[in-house]
Amino acid sequence: MGAACPGCFEGFALAGRSQGVATLRVAAGEGFAAAFGGARAVAIGIAPGRAEVLGNHTDYNEGFILAAAIDRYVVIAGRRVDGTVCSVASASFQGLVTFSSEKPEKQTGDKAWANYVAGVVSELGKLWGVKLGGFNAFVTSDVPSGAGVSSSAALEMATAKLLARLFPESVGKLSQLDLVKACKAAENNFVGMGCGILDQFSSGMGKAGQLHILDCRTLECSYAPFVGATFVLANTNSPHALVDGQYDELRKNCFAAAESIKKATGRRGITHLRDVDSQLFAAVEDSLPEAQRKRAKHIVFENERVHDGIKALKANDMITLGRYMSGSHRSSKEDFGNSSKELNVMVACAQGIHGFLGGRLMGGGFGGSTINLVREGYAESFSKELAHRYEAQTGIKPAVLICQPGDGATGEPLA
């Protein structure tokens, strides 16, 4: 799941709504001119954050996901320049970060935010043989950083769409799925975060007003309308860092569990936990080491919750969808081990508030946000009461955002 993107804005208001792409487009163009001596950007890349509704940590287990792009966006403005030097700036950091398009080098310290841009350049070359020239770019955003909505994937996808505009003869010939794969590779290989494809796929392939259903093995995707409810994302404002070993430890336990089940059953077709259903798991769970057993239990039943949640969504049964979301959180808390004290408090605080249908932690876990399914018309009052309850119990002021499914990544000329 997406790590924090230090180049993105922080400090969102209670029950905040999106600034809107139009506002971000203007800010990106003005920021570009200020950063590059009055020069005018000629194109922009736009990409949303994502909300994972069901399917927690199922992506790298080649499982199933129900998710949405959200109406919060990264916008990056840019133009080509002669040579191979790339210079990027952010609304949140002073100065420029430069690297060569021929061999981008990993940045450190206050410049580390630019790795999500440089990584895309690097992986476009490695994965698809694309050779780029130089460019200048400026980043602005209203995707919250460190909240579990994958601001990093949004920056990567926005970069890819900008480069498709700036280099139509090369990047511009790649498909949207090609760009998604390059951005995932950037996060895995350049940034060093072992995420699955959920974040980049959701940012790239989202549709406004719809949730998408993703098979992470085949990358087959379908859509279902989302009506009668709203998502409220509640950032606990507790520490949220995934490149510190916890995420990778969960991955290792999942892969080890799949291998253990394969050996115990003799079924050579088992390559990931996606290949294990609840009946098979029940037959072998007592033979697994505790860590493998608990992690596998979460993934196996989470995949089934996704399928059941899809049925509820298609029947417009938001009460049942909410129940599966709450069940997912219990599984994360009791079995997978990726919740936190603050996430558990936030989920508990939502109980009993008018309009609340269900909720769970979102993304990698260990901090970040919960996602709450709330009846249409109740989002504002729910958000205020949730924030009040959480601050009263923890002394921490949360950031609560109301959002709907938004469109996926795109590129545009900047007039």
What does this structure look like?
The chain has 415 residues and is an alpha+beta fold. The chain has a domain of 204 residues: Ribosomal Protein S5, domain 2, CATH 3.30.230.10. The protein contains eleven helices and twelve strands. The strands form two sheets. Strands 1, 2, 3, 4, 5, 6, 7 and 12 form an eight-stranded mixed beta sheet that branches. A four-stranded antiparallel beta sheet has the order 9-10-8-11. It is globular, with a radius of gyration of 21 Å. The two termini are 34 Å apart.
Question: In the CATH hierarchy, what is the architecture of the domain at 21-216 and 406-413 at level 2?
Answer: 2-Layer Sandwich
Shape: globular
Biggest beta sheet attributes? 8 strands, mixed
- CATH topology of the domain at 21-216 and 406-413: the name is Ribosomal Protein S5, domain 2
Percent of residues in helices: 40-55%
End-to-end separation: 34 Å
- Give the radius of gyration: 21 Å
Number of strands: 12
Reading off the top of the CATH hierarchy, the class of the domain at 21-216 and 406-413 is best stated as Alpha Beta
Alpha plus pi helix count:
11
| Overall mean confidence score, pLDDT | 92
From the helix content, strand content and strand pairing, which structural class follows?
A: alpha+beta
Low-confidence runs: 1-17
Order of helices and strands: HEEEEHEHHHEEEHHHHHEEHEE
> Which range does the strand content fall in?
15-25%
